[in-house]
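Review form for a predicted model. The reviewer records the input and the model, then writes brief findings.
Reviewer: anonymous (R2)
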Amino acid sequence: MSHPEGGPAEEPARRRNPLADLTPLRASPAFARLWAGQAISGIGSQMTIVAVGLDIYRLTESTLAVSGVALFALLPMIVAGLWGGMLADFFDRRRVALIAAVVAWLSTATLAVLAWTSADSVPALYALATLNAVAATVIQTTRAAIYPRILPRELLPAAAALNGITIGIMVTVGPALAGVLVATVGFGWTYTIDVVLFVSAFVGILGLPRILPEGDVRRPGLDSLRQGFSFLRHAPNIRASFLIDIGAMTFGQPRVLFPAIGVLVLGGGAITVGLLTAAFAVGAFLASVFSGRLGGVRWQGRAIARAVQSYGVFVALFGLVVLIASFAGTPPSDQLSDANVPALVLAALAMTGAGASDEVSAIFRSTMLQTAVPDHMRGRLQGVFTVVVAGGPRIGDLYVGALSVFVALWFPPLFGGVVIVVIAALIARFVRSFRAYDSLNPVP
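Model under review:
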């Protein structure tokens, strides 16, 4: 069944329990099935992403060749985000998600067949990984447009937090399992296990009702795309949420510095890189787990601005730790025994705080997009958001890499964190409707 949208505005309920609100799972069996399917299949998807990288490295012994997976998939993912949004705004969203899931499943099954027959090659791995990423992008875009149709408005923040928990489990368990499975049973079994786990995604999608877009629907094409961008031009709150996110991702992505910091500043090499990367994911996961009170936040524009400013502060603190550690004179080393442990702990805590702040911002940005945008526009606006998410971090990687070469390793995060705080403050100051955004009266 399709859940009616809107309804009388009521003050968001205040929960005393800080743990994640599980009400969406009880209120909507369709959401519960979709959520569980995403959680289980997502572990397999993350396994395949890591396994493809390991497979390409096995064939080429080139890190550059491994990075080519993301490079080749970037433009198709952007196109898929925009096109998938148009499809979701015209066709039955259940059918769009189902067809995309079939494509994703077939691409993984083909990877398994190639691995079992020893017929895998770098071009084939690139092509299949790109196809899988395109299908996953369409699924993600369509799924986000489905949630407001199967859940009441007041439960969307809780649903976003539950999805954050899912992502945390996926990116933690999936890569770890991939490493163990590839090392013990090989690529064939690793891909095959993903093929089996992906069945859960079909269960979740097939359990959905038929969901046709409501309102002024447009056939996919340039006219539909123009209508979507025209809507965005006249939607200051949604546009502000996109801009504030682009600012955070452009100036607050220190991940490309981790390898150099792990050798030249903090020590510890690959272990330090892993700890700093995991710390960000742990922060995001903890924010989702302890998100119970977020559903009662009414002024969500202010909440986004404050969460992004908090993110900037933690990124700047990370840069400050690196700056101070640079004067400690830790000799270059990739051994954990030679690491500057106090500085490493502080850097990891800063990344944990950044991950938690980013997740809080993501919960409210997702809720704003799903509640303020009319149903017939949700797919396209989610598609634009996918482009922002795909492109922003890569622009950030370029910014960080360039400044680290011309200035110092500590400068990009320290300077970038301050810039993020300023950008968020300026947007909150000059976009008054964003600062006054009321979840009881969601206006795009």
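Findings: Confidence is low (pLDDT under 50) at residues 1-9.
Further findings: The chain has 17 helices and no strands.
Recommendation: see findings above.
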